[in-house]
Amino acid sequence: MTTTNWSPQSWRHKTALQQPTWPDRTALDHTLKILSDQPPLVFAGEARDLSEKLAAAARGEAFVLQAGDCAESFESSADSIRDRLRVILQMAVVLTYAGGMPVVKVGRIAGQFAKPRSSDTETQGDVELPSFRGHIVNDIGFSESERRAEPNRLLMAYNRAAATLNLVRAFTRGGFADLSRVHAWNQEYVADSPQGAKYEALANEIDRSLAFMTACGIDLSKESALNQVDFFTSHEALILDYEEALTREDSMTGDWYDCSAHMLWIGERTRQLDGAHMEFLRGVKNPLGCKVGPTATVDDVVGICETLNPDRVEGRITLITRMGADKIRDTLPPLLEAVKDTGQPVLWITDPMHGNTYTAADGHKTRHFDAIVDEISGFFQAHEQAGTIAGGVHLELTGDAVTECLGGSDELGDDDLARAYETMCDPRLNGRQGLDVAFRVADLLASRS
Ligand code: PEP
Ligand code: CO
Question: What is the pTM of this model?
Answer without folding.
Answer: 0.97
